[in-house]
Amino acid sequence: MRKGTRLQLAAVSTALWMVTVLWGCGGGVPNVRIDRGYPDFRLAKTIMGEYHPMRLSVFERTGYAISEDLNEVFVLDLEQRRINKRIPVGTNPMGIVVTPDGRFTLVTNHHSDDISIIENARGEGVRTLALGNNPCGIALSPDGSRVYVTHHGGNRVSVLSIPSFETLARVEVGTGPMAVAVTPDGLYVFVVNEDSNNVSVFESESFRTETVIPVGRAPKGVAVSTDGRWAYVANRGSDSLSVIDVRQRSVVRTMPLDHGPVIMETAPFGSGQYSLVVW
Question: In this predicted model, what pLDDT tens digit does every residue of 68-95 receive, in sequence order?
Answer without folding.
Answer: 779 999 999 999 999 999 999 999 999 9
